[in-house]
Amino acid sequence: MTSAVAPSTAAPQNILGGIALRLLAMASLSLMFVVVKYVDRAGIHIAESLFWRQALVLPFLLMWVKATGGFASLRTNRIGAHSRRMLMGLTGMACNFDAMILLPMAEATTISLSVPIFAVIFAALLLGEATGWQRWSAVIIGFVGVLVVLDPFASFAGGFDGAHGVGTLVALAGAIMTALITIAVRDLGRTEHAATIVFWFSLLSMVPLGIALPFVFTSHDGHEWLLLVALGFLGAVAQMSLTGALRLAPV
Questions:
Q1: Nearest to residue 194, comparing CAs of 69, 53, 106, 100?
Q2: 154 inside domain
Q3: CA distances (Å), 222 to each of 42, 52, 219, in order?
Q4: For residue 144, with 0-12 CB atoms within 10 Å meaning exposed, 13-18 middle and 19 or more buried, which class applies?
Q5: Could you tell me the pTM of the whole model?
Q6: Mind listing the pLDDT tens digit for each residue in 204-219?
Q7: Second label for 118, Cα 20 to 30 Å away, from 17, 70, 182, 221?
């Protein structure tokens, strides 16, 4: 997962700045998942909601880029790494959206809070980042908390059947995939600007989602379009702040 490319545009590390951006990302994601619930109730297919979630990021992002570093900052020499990040990102988003649809939001969100647990483990194994006993202690305590939420003994006794059982597994898969995405973004952040990472993720994802769109697209009223625009805007804020956080601070 790591790259041998010299970090020509590596961001200076700013722990408090990274934490602040991470908190903004979590707030934006929480609001976005509320919108996901409403989008599902409106009968919009998950593939279509993912398409508009990505497509509507681009205009917000391009306005930001024009007002800051200019479009030259979007150039990249790591299209392969961006493509891998896109595939991982779409898989993770699909799992997270599906989990929010299949499970009560509080439960799906609680399971998603296991992302930092897996992220610390993967950061130590794949990026070689220093992980002291404090972080490992937090990982162990957090993992116990996840087990309490999942209640694996009762789940396995009753079998992982039904929408709730499937939703639990999907939510856990989404958390693991999201943790792997943080590692990929941290690696890309060594040579790429935050806007560059978000731009190529959104643009490249238009290919598979654009192919799927004609098969799932339905007409929408003004309220539904407002929900989809909100989905894109909150997604843009979440992606930019999370990507920026991973450039400024260790995973």
A1: 69
A2: yes
A3: 12, 15, 10
A4: exposed
A5: 0.76
A6: 999 999 999 999 998 9
A7: 17
